[in-house]
């Protein structure tokens, strides 16, 4: 049974923590749904509104705000002229009718952690090794525009800029047009990163079950994400005899079931899903001629993933014969199991112990912008618990005390990174 959602309550906190909670309560109003969630797809009007509000929040604290060539939003504070930056942040865009915490918590916690670290340096008169930049990565979710983690993929040179800017949504609007429409199509490639930190909700149950407040991510599950197109032939659903049919939706449905059967054949170590399915012409009395579907396979074990991938392609050949269709792979977005830098994990463990927060090393099953960033600079990835493991759902919830503890943790980590404790 999904829990009723508790509103963020600044009243339970004082001082800077109350300010953070009040800002979070405000952030939850952008793209708010009537069911307690948010709906703010990348470069939508709601995304534009929250970005405008976030710019104001940063500039009020003396940060300089810039948008790079792919719409990543940066708030920079230069304490040491010309020094590279600790990049700390996450993403504000959401899935449709989703939760308030995924990404957005990490962006706001990054801002408040940066405010506190900058204030500490200004009060002490000492100087850090690195400057601090808060980042709201563009289109981490990959819902309106594929692939996911788009903004950080361009920043880390994993995606080519022009091709990404010309990517279209279902209505034929390009990334460039959508960003320009909300005034966020910038220039340049953003501030130079020396190291990176991100905090995010776990989106799973393990931390809640273990009574863990801070997850310290030591590696990510691998993911193979595919866009398949199932091609058949339009026909009359009544008058066409069954043996004459080339039913693309039948073929797609068999593929959906095959994906779940694969997960069942590797219990607990393989996750699979088909999350998006477009039927053409999607008309009541027409046998569909084309179905586009997005299928993903994930595992912490590369061998399991490779076996599952092989079996999936075996199923595809069988389905083509059985349903008398053809299945083509249109696009793919894959990432391997890779570790976060051990020195960053140890630094985070020191910070958590210093704060007396129950902590544990965890793996991330979801992709994040830090999944990209750790491939170019030392990166620390942190989790806070998700109640009942619910995410990408309006009932996503993390307790106020946990998001505030996460902010304290992130502030400690950002301070250590700025000092050059990691690199
Ligand atoms: O996990 C995902 O695929 C998304 O990028 N968070
Ligand atoms: Mn996320
Ligand atoms: Mn997400």
Automatic annotation (TrEMBL):
Database matches in SUPFAM superfamilies:
Bacterial exopeptidase dimerisation domain (SSF55031), Zn-dependent exopeptidases (SSF53187)
How the cofactor is bound: the record states: Binds 2 Zn(2+) ions per subunit.
Q: Keywords assigned by UniProt?
A: Hydrolase, Metal-binding, Zinc
Enumerate the Gene3D superfamilies for this protein: 3.30.70.360, Zn peptidases (3.40.630.10)
Membership in a protein family: Belongs to the peptidase M20 family.
Cofactor (UniProt): Zn(2+)
Q: What is this protein called?
A: Peptidase M20
A molecular-function term among this protein's GO annotations: metal ion binding
Q: One Pfam family of this protein, by short name?
A: Peptidase_M20
Q: Which organism is it from?
A: Arthrobacter alpinus
- Name the residues that bind Zn(2+) 1: 91, 102, 200
Q: Which residues bind Zn(2+) 2?
A: 102, 141, 392
